[in-house]
Design goal:
InterPro entries: ATP-NAD_kinase_N, ATP-NAD_kinase_PpnK-typ_C, NAD/diacylglycerol_kinase_sf, NADK
Structural class: alpha+beta
GO cellular component, one term: cytoplasm
Distance between the termini: 31 Å
CATH class of the largest domain: Mainly Beta
CATH topology of the largest domain: Tumour Suppressor Smad4
Number of domains: 2
Largest sheet: 12 strands, antiparallel
Oligomer: single chain
Helix content: 10-25%
Strand content: 35-45%
Family: Belongs to the NAD kinase family.
Pfam families: NAD_kinase (PF01513), NAD_kinase_C (PF20143)
Catalytic activity: NAD(+) + ATP = ADP + NADP(+) + H(+)
Length: 266
Amino acid sequence: MARVHVAGCEPGRPVSRIALYVKDSIRERSPDLHGSLVKLLGGSFEIVEPGKAEVAVSVGGDGTFLAVARELPEDLPILGVNMGRRGAVTDALPEDLPIVVRRLMDGTYCVEDRIKLEASIASESYEAINEFYLNRRHVGSTPSYTVRYNSDELYSERMDGLIISTPTGSTGYNLSAGGPVLPETARSIVITPVLPLTKVPPVVIPLDDGPEVEVESSSPITLLVDGQLSVDPDAKIIHVRQSKYRLRVVRLRQIHFQHLRKTLCS
């Protein structure tokens, strides 16, 4: 079988060791299914700890994929098997598993590099795969957000919140708030206002190794990371830059804007 060639996608290698993650609710509600998954994958690969694996396999939905990917060792590729709803960041369905096994064993897949974001607030730092969502912490007057790029002010406007999204996350909160969808491998981010009092458009910004975005709020904020971690920082200024770590996603097929197609079909 020919190798998969996708622009921006590194050809894969034959896999013999995987790290397997199955969503807890699947283990609890469907023990037979969980056993079948382990039997199928364990019969073809050695199931090992992440530090010894060549590929991680996440079985669940987008939330499971994000939680697993956040804890993986640097540069370990991850393949998502969707047993949730939308599956925007996953690449296979349970019925595809025999094909998945063969493709991993043969090395007929590719690994796509995607950016992650790092946010610094005072002395703390956080990493996001999808997005950072800055939201006002207290009910009251609408706060102002001042957005700067490389120290140049882009705007200072009143709004409920602000979404800073990666290309991977551009089909999530960002799209719901009216932001554009970016190609998965783009080296850019999108900053999307949430309920601004005046018309403020989303802005797409290139984010290479150097540039960073600074956001200053006029009142205390809550920072939501990938929709899974909520933080109430003391500081009102946040700095966002491209993380030095990558998200490495296993791709089995060449479908551009796959995350958009899945979002629209869900």
